Amino acid sequence: MTDALELDALWEDFHRAVNMTSQELAAWLRVRDADENAEPLPEQAGSPTGQHVLAILQKRRTDLTDEDVQIMYRVVDTVAEQAATENEPEAQETRRRHRLMTIGHDPLRP
Fold first, then answer.
1. Phi and psi of 58, rounded to 5°?
2. Which of 46, 61, 73, 77 is the most buried (most CB within 10 A)?
3. What whole-number distance in Å separates Cα of residue 76 and Cα of residue 41?
4. Are 79 and 106 in contact (CB under 8 A)?
5. Which residues of the chain have pLDDT under 50?
6. pTM given for the model
7. pLDDT at 90
């Protein structure tokens, strides 16, 4: 696992990148997976990464696992990469926003 200073920095970066609350993310994952025929159980809604981000948001820093740390790095890197991209046409921008929201980042929030 990473050292304490690196983990502290990652914790801050992760919570800066994930700007949706756990309640907002859980609701988004349920809505995103619902279709006209069925809706998954709340704990099964969303991608595995989205579910993992939700679980991390509900943990204390001292309870993080190595897998949690890997997901946190991936989320921070993904959000940083997406922030660096040029503006896209509106339809692609909406898809990009929805993809980011599945990992807890709403790019329309400051």
1. -95, 5
2. 46
3. 28
4. no
5. none
6. 0.82
7. 67
Q: Cα 51 from chain centroid?
A: 8
- Compute the half-sphere exposure of residue 64: CA atoms within 13 Å on the CB side of its CA: 24
CA distances from 82 to 43, 66, 69, 106 (A): 27, 25, 20, 11
- CB-CB contact of 13 with 80 (8 Å): no
pLDDT at residue number 40: 52
How many other CB atoms sit within 10 Å of the CB of residue 104? 26
Dist. CA 53–CA 36, nearest whole Å: 26
How far apart CA 65 and CA 12 sit, in angstroms, is 16
Task: Output the 3-class SS for 59-98.
Answer: CCHHHCCHHHHHHHHHHHHHHHHHHCCCCCCHHHHHHHHH
